Amino acid sequence: MSSSEQDPKRKSRRQKDAGPQGTQVFSRDEVGKLLEGAAPETEQIDGAELRGVSESVSGQSFALAGATMVVGRSPDCGVRLEEASVSSEHARLVRDDEGWRVVNLLSTNGTFVNDKKISNAVIADGDHVRFGRAEFVFHDPEGRRRTTTGSGGAGVMRWLPWAAAAAAVAVVLIWFLR
User: Fold this and answer.
1) Are 120 and 101 in contact (CB under 8 A)?
2) Residues 86-144: tens digit of each pLDDT
3) Cα separations (Å) of 54 from 20, 35, 61, 173?
4) 3-state helix, strand, coil in the chain (%, to 5)
5) What is the Cα–Cα distance from 78 to 93, expressed in whole angstroms?
6) Choosing a second label site near 77 at 20 to 30 A (CA), which of 41, 111, 117, 152?
7) Is 64 helix (H, G, I), strand (E, B) or coil?
8) CA-to-CA distance for 143 and 98, rounded, in angstroms?
9) Closest to 148 measured CA to CA, from 157, 140, 139
10) DSSP state letters, 141-177
11) Can you give the pTM of this predicted structure?
12) Is 13 helix (H, G, I), strand (E, B) or coil?
C-alpha cells in the first residue's frame, strides 16, 4: 500500500471531493439549455418591470424589454446596476411559458426571490427579487400576483408529485399482497 492510501486524512479529503458540495456550476451553454423554452427575442414589451427598493437602487425602475435580459454591472447588461455586490453578469430574466423567470448566473453574492436563495425560479407580480444587496419589487401588469403562500397553492405543487408516487406505490403493494 502507498502512504497516501494509508493516510486517513488524505482518504477523507478524497471522499469529500468526490461529489457536489452545494454549489451548482453552470456554463453559459448549460444556462442557455435551461432557458430553451423562452419566448423569442422579438417578443414585445409587456409592461413588466423591476422597481428598486434597497438604498443603492431606490427610485430606479427597469422595464423588461424582450424575452430575456441580463442583470449585472457590465455595460452590456440590459439591467445595469452600479452596486459592488452585483457580479458583472449576475442573473438572467427570461419570459417563458410560465411567465417571468430569474436564473442566477454564477454570481458571487447570490440571487434571491422573497429572501430565498435561488438558482432558477419563476417570479410573480409583487415578488421581491434581490441581486446581491440590490433589491427590487417585480411588477407584471399582465401576470397574476401569487395569492397563496406557505402550504397552499405553490406549496401543493411541491408535494403533489410525492403524493402521486406514494399512491402508486400503495396500489402496487396492495396488488402484490392480495
Assistant:
1) yes
2) 999 999 999 988 889 999 998 999 999 999 999 999 999 999 999 999 999 999 987 75
3) 33, 28, 12, 54
4) 25, 25, 50
5) 10
6) 117
7) coil
8) 10
9) 157
10) TTS------TTSTHHHHHHHHHHHHHHHHHHHHHHHH
11) 0.60
12) helix
Q: In this predicted model, what pLDDT tens digit does every residue of 45-71 receive, in sequence order?
A: 568 999 999 999 999 999 998 889 999
Task: Walk across the sheet containing 111-113 and list its strands.
Answer: 61-63, 49-52, 134-139, 128-131, 111-113, 116-118
Radius of gyration over alpha carbons of the chain, in Å? 21
Residue whose grid cell is 478524497:
14
Do 172 and 164 form a contact (C-beta atoms < 8 A)? no
Render 94-109 in DSSP notation, one character per residue. EEETTEEEEEE-S-SS
Kindly state the cell numbers that stand for 36. Answer: 430553451
Gap between the Cα atoms of 3 and 138, Å rounded: 57
Give the integer Cα–Cα distance in Å for 149 and 128: 14
Q: Supply 25's cell numbers.
A: 456550476
Q: How far apart are the first and last CA of the chain?
A: 55
